[in-house]
Amino acid sequence: MSIPDPAGPRCFCRDCLADLDMGVRRCSACGSPRLVRHRALASLTIAHIDCDAFYATVEKRDNPDIADKPVIIGGGKRGVVSAACYIARTYGVRSAMPMYRALEACPHATVIRPDMAKYVRVGREVRQAMQALTPLVEPLSIDEAFLDLSGTERVHGMIPAKVLARFARDVERDIGITVSVGLSCNKFLAKIASDLDKPRGFAALDQEEARLMLASRPVGFIFGVGPATQERLVQRGFRIIADLQKADEIEMMRQFPSDGRRLWR
Description:
The protein is α+β, with helices and mostly antiparallel strands and 265 residues long. It contains twelve helices and ten strands.
């Protein structure tokens, strides 16, 4: 039996929440391979939760006959794709793609017109489950939100990472859809982390590893940097995030008065 880490667990099972040694491949308690491991796991408190292919997943939940088929949510041939399941995405189908192109890429897909009233109902169920974890929920859309779980360890009796793993498990069981969780020390990195292990994923990311991982990414990868801001940055020599990492904070604030400090940070 391993001795508990005084700094908190660095590895645990996403299914039964048992604490584990960092090097194991499967949970010794339940046999699950779905483990979360990170050196700073116990200290990370900011999460981004994103429902996986939300509209399509809801439709598959309600119609098991299409569970293993490519599904596209969208209008007629002149419309656009509102959402595509992960199977359809393997054929190149993407949100906002014209329907005729989506059907050229995946002609055997099941096409379903959006039922926004249903998606709103399910989204509210997920939101209520989030608000049971912390009052600090910042919705971004019907199917994603930031959560700040700072100071909730006493309330829940476990670290935020375990609270989030339990949340994802309960949503899948009770609501019938899957979510991906990103956990970090700020919202920007939490949102990046939630994309690292989709679908049905859980990823943690701290600042030290993020600095190296993000260095080669284009500046447009930063949450909140749209095409216009990216163009302004590129014009002034900031093409990749490494360029921003090497920049001087005061100089960034001078060149970009409204968001220079945020970009530098």
